[in-house]
Design brief:
Layout (H helix, E strand, L loop, with lengths): L1 E3 L3 H11 L4 E6 L7 E8 L2 E6 L19 E4 L2 H13 L4 E4 L3 E5 L5 E5 L5 E2 L2 E2 L2
Parallel strand pairs: 1-4, 5-8
Antiparallel strand pairs: 2-3, 3-4, 6-7, 7-8, 9-10
Amino acid sequence: MALLSSDVERTIEFYQELLEFPLTEIIENRDYKGSNHFFFDIGNGNLLAFFDFPGLDLEPYKEVLGGLHHIAISVDPATWERLRGKLEMAGVPHQIESGASIYFKDPDGARLELLADHLGEMYGARVL
């Protein structure tokens, strides 16, 4: 999955420092000079990619039909608790559902969910 970032440094700070997803690489976007393509390791062999498009005057994030609703990322329960505390300390508005999901938005407004279940499970039931 690739998302757009309006501010590379702010995105790196949010995903790497706050959410503890290591930045694995940042390269120049081959399709748009001056743009970056960068990746975060979100666990379980998965990366979350971003592009920035300076000078294109992109609109703020909106939920639209056919667009992104949210990204769900599985983390172990201890990591979930730690990240919940970090979100609270950072003042990031969030909502907890069913005691295992925490929903919040990234700096550009994309909705994220951290799920305190193993990959392939949701609320204790196998979905994979």
